[in-house]
Each structure stands twice: as structure tokens, then as C-alpha cells.
Design brief:
mainly alpha, 4-stranded mixed beta sheet, 3-stranded mixed beta sheet, 11 strands, 5% strand
Length: 794
Amino acid sequence: MERNGQPMNVLKRLRQASAALLAVLLVITAVPAALAASAVQYATRGQVADMLLAAADDYNPGVKRTDILKGYADGNLDENGSVTRAQALVMLERAFGTLPAPKGDNARKGYSASNFTDVPEWAKTELASVLASGIVAGTSATTFSPNARVTEHQMELFINRTYTLEGTNLKDDFYAAVNKTALDSSVITPGYSSSGSFSDVSIKADKEMQTIIKAIANGGAKSDGEKKIAVLYNNILNTTARDKAGITPIKKYLDAIDSATTLKELMAACQTTYEDLGMNPLMSFGLDVDAKDSTVYDLAFGTISPALGKTGYSAATDTQKKAYLTYLATLDTLLGADAATAAADAKLIWDTDAAIAAKSLNREELGDVDKTYNLFTMTQLQALFPNVDLNTIFAATGYQQTNRILVSDVNATKAAAALFDDAHLATLKLYSRMALASGYGVMLNHEFTDASQAFEKTYAGLSETTTEELAASYVQSMMSDYLGEAYVTRYFSAAAKTDIEQMIRGILATYKERINSLTWMSAATKARAIRKLDTMKLHVGYPDQWSDSLKDAKFLSVDEGGSFFANVIAGVKAQEADSVKRQQAGVDKDEWSMTPYTVNACYNPNVNSIEFPAGILQAPFYDVNATYEQNLGGIGYVIAHEITHAFDNNGAKYDENGNAADWWTAEDYAAFQKLCGNVVSLYDGREAAPGITCNGTQTLSENIADIGAAACLTALEGKRTTPDYKALYTAMSQIWCSSYTRETGEYLALVDVHAPDKLRGSLVLQNFSQFYDAFGITEGDGMWLAPVSRVTIW
């Protein structure tokens, strides 16, 4: 789950809505450090035969060792000899029998073997089903490398992938078995990155919102807010008017940027863009809650930053890099550049972004307050940008100068600051143009949206969405103040709110008991942890009061001289004015960070609050007609997960008041850090799909939250007269059932702080003895995790 900060402004939300890629709740393929450091252990023919005999007994009853290891023509078995890829995989096919053809999720995520040209004749027949199964990668698109030697670890991967492909034995692959029907029959809806529990509920909520928006737009508007919804939606759908206008709405700003001959002139052009449109293309000031005093806001400074994040450049595949360069070049041509210039410009942006990315914090570090709480005075910030008049830029915002300016990623900011001189004028002009294209393109002619969707399809495997769906998505992003109340009125009940609040209190009570029973934490630290639980704010369903940040914004239809572009600018201006008022009023700790129709949940460390919008409080997460275990394994998992975020490696640095403070004893924190290291080791290098692995460091905070949630729910179920752990663990695994394309999986492995859903629905459970007892899992089964490797913290 995401832990969000303050609400996004209109323009930022529209950018996210217009690029689904950037909202995909993103392959580090390195092996675990311990494995890489050890000497490579090649398997022998006899070892492979033994491994396969033990693995295949439940799939091919009666299989014998002699069926697997048949030896050479002279009868020599050569059990101590090395085994090649071709030999090992032929032995695998003999052990398991003909492998099933991949369907659904397995077909999407598996390797393609259709172009292998070097499969030996002697193995072609027996390898046919193996190579078609998707469990085997080549050393290139056309090369199988049949004579390469196989390690024990590689053989384990082949076996585990076969367990997943079969999906018939929960003792070997629990997630694949309990979700087999759903995974095999999964279909990804156009415009979405995945199918599964979260996607299905998101699609349902989106359709509900589309119904509400269409009803309002078709004459059903009853309030001033709903009239604005109708105007905006109909203006978005009027693609004829937008195509006729083309880039005219931003043309004068592009011309001013192009005509700048000095940095000073360029910054003046950017300042005009901010004053007119609400965005400075090169730098900005905003608000962020002070990490050490959560009652006040700090100013927050931002400048050029890599769009693809820390690893999006260095770890990009050739396909991903080409897709992004094509996207950038397309935007450039839509602004008027010729093809050759656009290609050169795209490469310049890539190279510049990559250089800044190399200096940037990674995803996990960006959640670490010790690394991101960097306060500058205006004088100190000005020293980083000696050629830019920051005071003039700041004066236009209307904010009060507090001389407390947050720079979250100092090294990345310094790398960007080095560009702000006349020598880099061409680069800065290019960034300014592209900021306008990416920020406002969705509001202009349809070619910008086409370019975005083409990029998302190639880069992350997303399919296209209709104009109506996109329009509804944009309206949801911008009109959440009005739509939230409409959604709750139609689709959420006060009874559900009360029931969820009661469930939360039960989970909190169990959490206290677990903290009190910890053997690695002292009484003093336990008391502070429990105080954090006792003061945690519960936000369920919807806010107690509805806000209206767009109250003063005037929206005009096309007939009245308005446009999608003009309406967005009006909204941006209104929200900027609202933000200025917010700074003066101070932090409202009852303010929500998500809309009521959002299918998500979060923990906010600055407020010490957990938030569960109405959107996620429906089946299969929560259903009044479901069993206790189904609801506990569904929404209960989500609730306990968010509570645990208060004590993950990042949340543990905040106290009960939402302030970054050290409330630990030195000994307790050292013990906690050791346990965190164990979690990293548990996840690092684990496969979620063939060749797509988990980065244990990047996903640490979310993995702690998952394990903590599972521990709490296990304890809660254990209080029942007749605990049904089978039902609980099945529900917990099914809630994470999902399917996505291989491209999306590779992208998520690069940037997402969550472990892949397969691990969330299986590896988490392997840490609890009750799981093994419930399903009779013993050593030798694929789901067995040695007790010494199991991890629990909370």
C-alpha cells in the first residue's frame, strides 16, 4: 500500500492520470549477495536426478530414478559427471511428464522460446513441451545454449517454475494452487496494467465513477460543483475543439522559451509560464509537512529530476530505452521539431536524466526521513543556483517565507543545479519545452495522448483506453472534492464504516498484545510503541468534512469560450490559492490524502494515521456476507499491513505525534535493524516470475508490513475456539492474486517498493508454523522454508 503525503495539486494529478505508466502500483535480476559471493556449484547428473525424483513424485506418481537418468548408449550413467542445460531439462520432462501449455498468467510472464535455433536434434522431441512452457530463457533471443552447465540453484529455479506452471499442489506452490483457476483464466482489461483482486475492484470503482460522471454530465448536475464536473467532462470529450486548437494554448510560452538567448531570459519566460499557467517548467516551491514538527509546513523545493527514477536508466532494457526515446522524440515533433532534431533532443534528455539519476536517492532511501529531511535557508539554496534569482521565483507563489526549505534529494538537486548557466542554455530550453508538452499535452490535441498510450504499451505492456474512460479518469483526478461525496452517498454505508472501525480496534488490541510479548524489545520502548498505537488516527470510508478547493474556480463550456486546457488552469490557480491558505492555517491532521473512491489504503507517518477509503471496503476485501476468515484475510490483511507501517524501517523513525524522533533505546534499535536485515535476505533475489526477481532492500518497508500483518492475523485467528488457519491463509493468498504482462513485471521490479504479489501471497505465509501445520507441509515440499530462515518482527 502507498503511504501518501499531502493531496496533490490539480496539474500533478492530471499528469498522473494522463500517464498510467507513472501510476502503476515498477527487473532487478541480480542473485542474492550471499549466492553471488560463493563459488558456483555446478550440479552433477546424479544430483539433478535426485532433485527431480523428490520434486516430481506428486505430479508423476510411480516415476523412478531410472526413468529420469537413462545414461549413455554404453549403459554408463556417469552420475558424477556435469550436466548441461539440454540434459537437465530433458530429465525434468521425464520426471514430470509432458508439461502443460502455459495459460493466462503463466503465458504472459513466461519466456518465449519460439526463436531458438540451436536445440540439438537428440533433444528436440523431449524438450518440446519444456521450451513451450515458458520456464526457460535463452542466452539470446535465438540461442538456447544447450551445452552450458547447470548449477543446483538453476535447477531449483527450473523446478519451482514447473511447480507454478502445474499449479496443482499447494504444498509446492501455495499461491499458484489456491489461485489456479483465477490465474489461468485471467484477462487484463484494456487500460489497466493487471488483473486480480485490486484491479477488479479498481475497475468496478472506475465504472461506478463513470456512471456518476455521465449522469451528471447528461443533465443531472444539481450543485455548482456538479456543474463544473459536467463542463469539464464534456470539454474533454470535445476532441474536435481540442484538435482544432492544437498547441495554440501553449504556443506563446514555447515561443518565449525558444527566443531566450540567456539563462536570465529563459527564467523570465518560465516565470511568465508560472504566473499564467501555474507551472514553472524548471523549478518550483510547494508545501510539505515538517518531519520533526508535524503541526507546521515547510516549504519544499523541486527542480529537474529524472522521470524514470533512480534505476530507470541504468537498468532499462533496450526495448524500454527505445520506447522512452521514441516518446520524447514524438512529443518534440508535436511541438514543431523535425525528426533529426527530435531524435537528438531525446538522446540529450536521456543522457542528462541518467547523469542526475546516478546521483539520486533510490526508492527505499526516498522513504527514509534521515536521508530526505534536509532543510535549507533561502541563502543556502540560492548558493546552489547562483545564476537564478530564487527570491523572484518564490515571491510569485504567495507563500510566506519561513527560511525552512526542504530539499529531499540533495545530491540530485546539486546535479541539476549544475545545468543552470548559459553554457547549458540549450539543455534547459529543451527541458522547459518538454515540461510543457508532458504537463499540458493531454489537454491539447489527441496526438499527445496517442503518444503517451503508445509509450505505455511498449514500455509497460499497458493497453489503450477509450476517450470516455480517459475523460472520466481526468475528471476523477481533478474533481475529487465533489465526486467523493457523490460516490459515498451511492455506494458506501454507515454500517460498513462502523463494522470496519470495530475490526481495526480488534487488530490494534492484538497488536498491543504482540508488542508486549516481544523478547527483543525493552519495556521502555514497548511503552512508546503502544502509545503510538493508542494515539493512531482512524480514517475510514470518507472524511468527516468535505473540502472544496475549487470553489472559486470558474469553468466554462466550449460554447462559452472555455476548454479543457482553460478549465485545468482555473483549477490549478484555485488550488494554488488554497495551498497558500493552508500554509497560513497550519497542518490539518484530519485531512485525507486519498479520495473516497480510491482502491488503496495508507499509513501517514506525519499524522500517525491509517486511511481506508470506501473504494477498497468492498468485496473481495470486505463483504458483509463473507466468513470471518475471508474478511480477516482480506481487509484485515490490509488493515494490519497499514498498522505495521508505523513500525517498519521508515515509520519506526516517527513518534506518536507524527514527528521524526528517536523513541528507541540504542539496544532495541540495533536488534530491530538486525531483524530488518533478515527480511532483506529473505526476499532478495526471490523469483516472482521466470527471471523476474525481488530486490529485498527496495521492498523492505512493505515486506515488514506484510510479515507484521500476517503475524497479527495469525494471532487473532488463534484466539478463536476452533481456529481455521486453512481458510485464513487461503484468503490471505487469494487477496494478492494478480496477473500482469512480463513488461509490467520487469518495470515493477525496477521501481516498486512492494514485493511482487506472488511473494505477498506465499513467502509471507512461510514464516509461520501454523501455515505448515494447517496444510501438512514438510521438509522436501516446495513451500518448506527452514525454521532458521523464517522471519518475524512484530
